[in-house]
User: What shape does this take?
Amino acid sequence: MGVVRRRRAADRSTLPVGIAWRNPARGLRWLAALVACLCFGSPAAAAAGRVALALEGPEITQGETVAVTVSGPGIASARLVAGGREIPLYRVSGRLVGLLGTDPLTRPGSVHLVLTAVDEAGRRLTAAARLRVRDGRFGARNVTLSPDTMRLLSPQKVAEERRRFAEAVRRTSARRLWQGPFLHPVAGALSSGYGVRSIYSGRPGGYHLGVDYAADDGTPVRAANRGRVTLADRLPLSGNIVVIDHGMGVFTSYHHMSSLAVREGQEVARGDLLGHVGSTGLSTGPHLHWAMLVGQARVNPLHWTRRPPLP
Ligand SMILES: [Zn+2]
Assistant: This one.
């Protein structure tokens, strides 16, 4: 039982990561955008003029990421909006590609994607597509927070954590730096899955926006893929943390380490040592919390270990 309680307490460390999504105004905008798009009644995928949108599939489950490819000759500029949120487009092998990430806070249902483009002749072109997001049905669990844990969740510490993390993911390489499937960052069994919602004294709280690996103190933590370190420091809740920019708005983060082996600005290859498993920050037992950001969504990193949206 002791181990279970430890893990639950540690999971709360993901709180700052999810707070931005719980902003009520943002939630309402997202909802409004979805309601608006349901009225369009457009087909599953449609193209107008000489530009088209292609999705890998018509449906995804919360936590998954889908690549959206724009095709058409002579496109000078393009802007993609999904559910009211702009999805940045990047040039990959001569095509424009955007990554649409989802998480437990992405409302299940239909998301309308609208592309507006201008070709080299100055003509304005549009295309639209629809994506269905399925409920991840991640489940919930009851969590009891100790007074020590509550002290770590002071508004000042949460604000500091959020500010530092936001700085680390503000800028991304326009070039894709990753290649192939992502590695599991430690050799260890998963102790806590993605997306589970914590219930505190009957009140619904945050979602587990990452995965936990059970591993001994000192176990090497390795870069899941190639990228550049944008944060390597000690934060109040995440403890010793490393954040890696993999390009195109894709970041991975490694939390609660006992020591760090990289510095900010350093380029890392897939498998490079980042630090060692520990229990720093809001954690009462050694484990690695591993998370992934795509755009503004906290996606499930395990999907990227099996089949990345852009291999
Ligand atoms: Zn965790």
Summary: Residues 10-11, 14, 192, 208, 210, 212, 289 surround zinc ion (CB under 6 Å). The chain has two domains: 25-134, 137-306.
